[in-house]
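Q: What residues go here?
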């Protein structure tokens, strides 16, 4: 037993004298413990919360099939918002229902147990099983049929909010060869995203970074395919000091006076890569921190990505505007099973 000395006197006290076990405070009865009507009311409230979850699941399924996203950004936003809200209610109902049930109806008697060795004896294991059985009995789930039915239904239905979209997507278009080609082609101007203003090489200073999309007509912008095609063709344009560029022989003609263009789609899982650090020339993906060296062919210097970002060959036209020499020479985005390299 340790001993402690106080500074004010020579009286020696033990830790046992100074620190006493406060014990378990007196148990406070809840309204549901003494009033059957309150217990019944708590049961109805928990069942109502589980019912909200059931309704949320049903609404989520209806929304998924009834509100199909169209070609516009607004329709996609509306469909996702409605689906997200309904799934949120499905989850919230289960969570709040379980919490209210535990707080209002389950046993809340405090119990203190002595610590023991981790390995339990056979008697302890038997006792644990008996305690579990007693807990099931103490939760009153057996005799509360309405509560039992609502919680089982809520838990049984909720997985459908995830399973149904997954199963129904099996028949979707899985033509990954679409990633081999984008809107870029010889002579197509590089324009700012989202304004669509053509960019001149003379406008860019060393250290400039511009988000780029292909130049398209107003009619093409209104088409249903524009969003998808734009997402594949997004590019990050960076101007460096030509002395800092490390270019292979076959790619020396792909840049123009220190200006290089790389796909913004990370080669890891396809997140947008757009965080540029001017001093190191590093380009960071915010999702999983893959880092690419823009001055050295956008090669991977850190993170889970395994391939450099595809480079878009660029030059200038007769008016000084930056244009593409061709499409990307390799598929953009993450690796996939039909990709050769």
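A:
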């Amino acid at each position: 037993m340790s001993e402690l000395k106080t500074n004010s006197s020579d009286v020696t006290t033990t830790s046992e004298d100074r620190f006493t076990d406060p014990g378990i405070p007196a148990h406070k009865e809840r309204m549901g413990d003494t009033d059957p009507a309150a217990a019944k009311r708590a049961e109805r409230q928990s069942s109502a919360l589980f019912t909200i979850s059931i309704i949320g699941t049903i609404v989520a399924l209806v929304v998924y099939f009834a509100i199909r996203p169209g070609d516009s950004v607004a329709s996609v936003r509306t469909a996702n918002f409605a689906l997200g809200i309904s799934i949120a209610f499905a989850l919230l109902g289960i969570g709040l229902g379980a919490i209210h049930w535990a707080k209002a109806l389950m046993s809340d008697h405090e119990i203190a147990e002595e610590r023991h060795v981790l390995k339990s004896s056979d008697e302890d294991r038997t006792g644990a099983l008996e305690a579990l059985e007693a807990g099931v009995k103490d939760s009153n789930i057996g005799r509360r049929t309405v509560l039992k039915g609502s919680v089982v239904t809520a838990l049984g239905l909720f997985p459908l909010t995830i399973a149904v979209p997954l199963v129904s997507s099996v028949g979707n278009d899985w033509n990954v060869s679409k990633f081999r080609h984008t809107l870029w082609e010889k002579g197509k101007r590089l324009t700012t995203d989202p304004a669509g203003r053509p960019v001149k090489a003379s406008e860019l200073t060393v250290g400039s970074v511009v988000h780029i999309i292909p130049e398209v007509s107003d009619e093409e912008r209104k088409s249903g395919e524009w969003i998808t095609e734009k997402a594949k063709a997004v590019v990050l344009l960076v101007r460096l000091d030509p002395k800092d560029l490390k270019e292979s022989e076959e790619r020396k003609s792909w840049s123009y006076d220190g200006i290089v263009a790389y796909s913004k789609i990370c080669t890891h899982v396809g997140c947008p890569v757009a965080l540029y650090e001017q001093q190191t020339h590093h380009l960071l993906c915010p999702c999983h921190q893959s880092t690419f060296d823009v001055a050295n062919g956008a090669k991977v210097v850190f993170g889970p990505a395994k391939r450099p970002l595809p480079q878009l060959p660029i030059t200038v036209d007769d008016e000084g505007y930056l244009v593409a020499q061709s499409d990307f020479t390799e598929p953009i985005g993450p690796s996939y099973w039909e990709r050769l390299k």
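A: Context that may help when evaluating the design: The CA atoms of residues 36 and 222 lie 64 Å apart. The radius of gyration is 32 Å.
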